[in-house]
Design goal:
Order of helices and strands of chain B: EEEEEEHHEEEEHHEE
Order of helices and strands of chain A: HEEEEHHEEEEHHEEH
Structural class of chain A: alpha+beta
Strand content of chain A: 15-25%
Shape of chain A: globular
Strand order of the largest sheet of chain B: 10-1-2-11-12
Number of helices of chain A: 6
Number of strands of chain B: 12
Number of strands of chain A: 10
Strand content of chain B: 25-35%
Shape of chain B: globular
Largest sheet of chain A: 5 strands, antiparallel
Distance between the termini of chain A: 47 Å
Strand order of the largest sheet of chain A: 8-1-2-9-10
Number of helices of chain B: 4
Oligomer: heterodimer
Amino acid sequence: MGESSYSFSLTTFSPSGKLVQIEYALNAVSSGSTSIGIKAKNGVVIATEKKLPALIDETSVKKMHNLTDNIGMVYSGMGPDSRVLLRKGRKSAMNYGLYYKDPIPVAELAHRLASVMQDYTQSGGVRPFGVSLLIAGCDERGPQLYQVDPSGSYWAWKASAIGKNFVNAKTDLEKRYNEEMELEDAIHTALFTLKKGFEGEMNEKNIEVGIVDDKSRKFKVLSQAEILDYLNEMEF
Amino acid sequence: GEAMSIQTYNGAAIIAMSGQECVAIASDLRFGVQNQTLACDHKKVYRMHDRLYMGLSGLATDAQTLYKRFVFKHNLYRLREERDMRPQTFASMVSATLYEKRFGPYFVEPVIAGLDPEEGHAPFIAGMDSLGAMETAKDFMCAGTNSESLLGVCETFYRPGLGPEELFEVISQCMLSGVDRDALAGWGAVVYVISKDQCIARTLKGRMD
């Protein structure tokens, strides 16, 4: 209606109570490649599509990173924006560790990243981040999965999806998810759900998977060989 | 009066000791300004939470201010993280806070004693100088205007593995003997013995001079 006339300024509400720039940022997220996260009883798995043009050297591209030893993140949306949040997240976590000599809790790190994203919705001369993040980690409170949106709102999820196919993926996850899932089941489920919305053939080269288990509490991005093992275990 | 040394303006004596699944921390009760004694009920040990206590020796005004700042910080921490601070986390925070004032420091020497909730309530003792240089110890930590005397008695009387009652006896004897040679500390003492389930505070009657 008159919405578009309010879309010039981030810091002006539209008549319906929206900040249109944030809506548009969410659109940027929804046109990015799909990412999925599942929290199991003994760990968390996150996975994402990594569709690249044919001539790109895929070994040089990483969408999934460690924020700390025991916390990892993946994004959907604008890659360059995610790099800024990655840096700020890592530095923030390090500062916490320097001050308290204690690793940062997952919830606290998610909160800090969300606060950064909220800052960029209430400041002059900036635009919101064009990414949603899935943050996976294990600490004293157990395995946790957080989703952080461009608005700065964040939620703890048992399972979630962001990006292009998130609606169908979420429906799929709702059907498949159960509280008793172990990490291995969650990995298979994540791959199944990812494959469902995948255009073309899904293989170890065009997806990225990261896991953190409650015992070792180390987040690691799986190698292509490890992903291939999981894909082979599933009957496709 | 005489030339003022900021570290000896008020006077204090603080000892922390670790035992079997318990810690104890004690301070004298004198409050004075140089050689004039103004109060004999001025504790220098502060409770941060049920299993974490901190003693602050040195300039009394800085000790008071710092205590309030640490309560502030710990309250915010507890609201954010929905848990009490571990002793080592608190000690790191104290160290960072002191170092922030590296070129205009607080004139205090903290001693921290507590039980670590994450390591089966293991005893934790630490001390640092006014710039935040921290050391932990397995046995005891001393601070104050006559810390050398305190270290001497502790070295003599301390044994590892003391239970709460024995630890109380040992730390009390160390405190009372230690302040006898210190003109600026004494006038009674307070002792806290902290175990997993309770903390007992006792006041000692000493020489009121």
